[in-house]
Each structure stands twice: as structure tokens, then as C-alpha cells.
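ok so heres the complex, two chains, lmk if somethin looks off
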Amino acid sequence: MLKYKKIKTSGKARRGQLITAHGTVELPTFMAVGTAGTVKAMSVEAIKRTGTQIVLGNTYHLMLRPSAERVADFGGLHKFMNWPGPILTDSGGFQVMSLSGLRKITEKGTTFQSHLSGEKFELTPERSIEIQHLLDADISMAFDECLPYPSPEKKVAESMRRSMRWAGRSKDAFRDRDGYGLFGIVQGGMIKDLRLESVKALKKIGFDGYAVGGLAVGEGQEKMFEVLDYTVPELPDDKPHYLMGVGRPSDIVGAVARGIDMFDCVMPSRSGRTGQAFTSHGVLNIRNSCYQDDHSPLDANCTCPACTHYTRGYLHHLFRCGEILGAMLMTEHNLRFYQNLMAKIREAIEADQMADFVAAFQEKYKDDRKM
Amino acid sequence: MLKYKKIKTSGKARRGQLITAHGTVELPTFMAVGTAGTVKAMSVEAIKRTGTQIVLGNTYHLMLRPSAERVADFGGLHKFMNWPGPILTDSGGFQVMSLSGLRKITEKGTTFQSHLSGEKFELTPERSIEIQHLLDADISMAFDECLPYPSPEKKVAESMRRSMRWAGRSKDAFRDRDGYGLFGIVQGGMIKDLRLESVKALKKIGFDGYAVGGLAVGEGQEKMFEVLDYTVPELPDDKPHYLMGVGRPSDIVGAVARGIDMFDCVMPSRSGRTGQAFTSHGVLNIRNSCYQDDHSPLDANCTCPACTHYTRGYLHHLFRCGEILGAMLMTEHNLRFYQNLMAKIREAIEADQMADFVAAFQEKYKDDRKM
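and the predicted structre for the whole thing:
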């Protein structure tokens, strides 16, 4: 069981707290993606410095390497990776679809071949929940199927209904304990009736939190916001709302304004490794030769190590040479940018100025769609 | 001009201090290799944590990327890479031989093609010293030629004599300032008469320190120690002695016992990136599957982050997944191991127990020749 406290609202935006076995998460929050038991290129010290409160682990990756049983032997994922704060794990469903080969879906679950070894694995709602239990996730996700976009309506409906049956089996398999919880995932593609049917099914089962899945799959921001506009108001108001795999800063700002509390995305960390930086003036790619002789900091408004101690010219040099320090500094900067954004969003809601915040953000930060 | 202070000796081993424009270096010391303006996979914070006092920069790499003039524009290498301590730069000669294509050596210097762009460059004693000045190196190295081993005696003699003429031109080109200095490099292969002739030539020119070059090129530890046995006693006693590109822990211990004060080697950092760890019990490769379920720390006698917060099983997992954090943690561990070794060596000399230290080290740490 997880405790959720709503502190304040501003329009539909919610300032809340989620109390887990490994600490309290201030909402809205952005979760750093730590796929294989590490946020890529980041020491735990650096993760903490960014203001990150909660880390996401990927069931699919961890079940293949080093295996859930092994992580459990090491005392769970917190201990294994030396992260003392809360951890959310996904169910593995999304990566089975996007990464593995030769997968087969039945009512029971999925069988698939590891993208690493070709070895055959089975993932069912029961096994996914068991794995997440072995990993010691504070927040487990119900096992679901995430379809590619676009998919035919008939397929979306069938898949959503199976995911809802899997959600029920996930709930049955989940071992409830204080500070631990299970989230259900709304599916149904871009079809309003299916989304609402999905919400209804999940509410009937009852979860500690409600996620919106199947978005950020190429449908564009407008369609995504449209889905949120009719879906989020139907979610239980006394539980946290999580938009999975999202997103760009402007996606996050818009989704908070529509009642979302939690986010995760590889964008800040992956961009950090490829040289894309989020700054208070928009995105820039530090590999661009225009930065070769630039003596200014990456972002004069940022206090991260990259911006405090180095020039754009040095960061450009690191990326040009393929130096690991470039990925380290830039990932920390991008995560700091995201966490600073979340902190400002929380302040705006507390001051009941979310609408002003959204307007000012849209005015100032125009170009993150380019990413 | 650099100040060298001899504090204490134990046999031929010397406990000293080298006072530079960017701080005092306690000798004997191991210099971390920061080829392209970064010690690979290490934040400056982490470099400092290891006890590293002085960093080495590579003239060849920095002249190609980002260029010496550019580093000077950024205020010198210390400022560019945010390393406040002393920096030694090599002359570029060694890398011209080992990395570049289509090189040509004349009395004037060398012309070569960049291994990166194919672009043609010239490096002469005068240009090498100018580059090192632009980089703002506390310690510059005379420009020399380093031959492959073995080379015919006639070639070794000719090359050494040319390097000695280049040493004279390096001295003429060097702009002396307080806290900055120039080291000469002894060449002459494995041939005693040539080594002694080289020492004589360098002493006649006069340098702030004396390096032994052309070793650790495949000749083996025995031959290397033989060269040191007859070379080091001829070096000025009131100047620091630097053994270039060395080496394994046992090389360092043996060389200090023969009167060497300074070392540099890519071994701890490169090994750190490939999974080789130096421990108090010898070397191990963390990729080995025997560590998959190992709950013990990398080295129970070490207090670095890798050994304090993680298991061998976790480090194994990081390397198996190709995670950057593996390289970060392991590089820091290896550099810490080297710096701890240097600290123990300094203590042993201070207590006049270097011979005992060497004996105990050889007894305990048997297998670093496997590396």
C-alpha cells in the first residue's frame, strides 16, 4: 500500500506527495531511467545532485541480465545499485514488444527471444509481478501490451481488453506490503471509448496509482494531449497519475496542466550521451562546430558541474573526441534541467499559478519539438 | 624554474618534493594520464579523490584536437579541463612514432599525418616547446625520438644523438618562468655506452629534471631495471628523475628502489575501462563469470566508491552490459590503488624501510606480470 497526499491544486495540476518504503516523492516528479541497474553515465552521487527522487528500472533488461533472482540474492535493486530512494519498475511488456525477437502473445502472456542471447523466455502477469517483487520495486506496474501506433481499432480493442484481464491477474499476484504498491495502466490507443472502458476496468480492480500507457509512440503532442484531456479526469483523484515514457519538457508541462503527476523518459540521459543539451533557451547540440570556440557555459542559468566548471568549447571537445566525461557531464546537466523544471512546476502549483507558468514556458521555450 | 627538495633517502630511493606553479608534488609520484584534456571516465572530483597530484597531457593529441592555440585561448589546459593542480605534457615525439601515418624525420624535426584526419603536421623541438607553452604545462618535456625495440645499434646511436641535439634546441626554445620547468630525456636503447653518452649530453645542456625514455617498449622488466641500474646513478642528484610510460606496480616499486621519482602510465585507467582491477591480492578481471554471484567488494582493503558501495557481482554486471558506470568506478579504483601504493612507498622511504617494503611487496603481490 502506498500513501498519496494531495497538497494543492492549480487548475487540473496537482501538487502531491507519494510515500513509499524508501522515501517520499514530491509530485509532480520526473523519474530518471536506470534501465539495467544504473542511470547511464551517472554516479549515484551525481543522480542525487540533480534532485532526482525516484529511479525507474526495466524489468525486461534486468530479467535478462543479471536476472531477477540474482538481484534478489544481492538484497534487491536498491542495494545492488546503491540507490537508497524509491524505485519504480515497469512490467517488461513494452520492451518485449520493442526489443525482443520472435515474440508470441497468448491469453496466458508472452513468450519471446532475448535480444541479447536469443534464449527463450516467458513473461506472464504473474511472472512480471514476481520479478518486480524480487527486484524489490517500491512501485510495480501491471503487465500490459503496448501496441505500435497506428494499429487497427479492432486490434487496439482486443489488446486493451486482454491487458485489462492481465491487470486483474497482476493485482491478484501482487503481494501488498506497507510502502509498496501496484499501478494499473490505461490502454486503448487514441480511441476515446476504449480509453474510458479501460479506465473503468482498472478502477473496478483498484490500484495504488494509475498510469496512462500507449502514448508517446509517434502520435504527436496534440493527439497525446487530446487523450489526456478525456482520460485523466476519469482517473481516481486520490491516487497518483503517471504518464509513461514522456517526454519533452513541453510534453511534461502540458501533461501536468492536465493532471499528470509522474513521468519517465530516456530523453535527458540519451540526449546527454549524444550531445543534445536542454537549456533555458531551448535545445542545442554541443557537437555543432559553432561551439568549438565558445567560452560561455552551456547554460548560464544552471548550477550543475558542466555549467559551473566548463565552457561549451570544452564540452564540444569532449564529444568530438568521444570522451566519456562528455556523456557524464551532459547527462547530469540534462537531468538537472528536468529536475529544475519539475521543481518550478511544483512551485507554480503551490502558488496556484500553473496557467501563467504554462504560458510563460510556451513563450520562452519554443523549440523542443526539434528533438 | 622548478624547485626540487630531497627530504629523505632509503638506499637509492628518494623522498622528495617538486614545487610547481600549480602546487607541490610529493615524490615519488604517479601521474594520471589525461591524454586529450580529460582522464578518461573520471570527473575532476574523482581524480582528486584518488590522491592524484599531477596530471599528464599529450601534446600530440591536444595539438590535433582542439589545437594548442585553442587551449591557450581558453586560458591554458588547467582552466580548459578544470584541473587546478600541476600538469606535465609530453613532447609529442612518442605518439608521432606510435600513432601517426607517413612520418618523416629530418634534422629539423618530423612531419607526419594526423591519425584522425590525415592532415599533415610538422613537429620540431621549437614547435613542441611552443605548444607545451601554449598548453601552460608546469613541466614541459624536450622533443625526442623514441625508437621501436629492438632497433640496430647504429640506428639507436644516430637517433639518440639527434635527440640530444633536439634537447639543446628544446632548451633554447623554452621560456623559463618561476614554477615552470623543462625536463631532458635520456635515450640510447638498451646500450650502456649510449645511455651514458646521452646522460652526459643532457647534463651539459642542463634541465630542471631528467627523464629516462625509450623503456617499457617490450624489453621486459629485467632489461629495464638493468638500464636503470647504470643510468639513474649518473643523473643529477639534485633534480627529479622521471621514468616515462611506466608501468605495472612491480615496475614502479623496483624503479623507485633504483632512484626514480616520477611515473606515468595508461595502465590503471585503460585497465579500468576493460575490466582489469588492481587489488591488494593481485590483478583480476571483473568480466570473468566467477564474479557474477560474488557478494564481496572488489578489494576489502580499499576505500574507493567501487569498493565501499558495490559488490563484485554488480561491477561484473556493469561490464557485462557495457555500462559507462563500470568504467567510471573501476578507473577510480585502479588510480586509487596506484596512489595508495605511492603513498605507502613514500612512507617506507621516510621510515628508511624501502628494502623491506620491496621484499614484502614482491612476496605479496606476485602476478602483475600477467597484465
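quick notes: The mean pLDDT of chain A is 96. thats all i got rn
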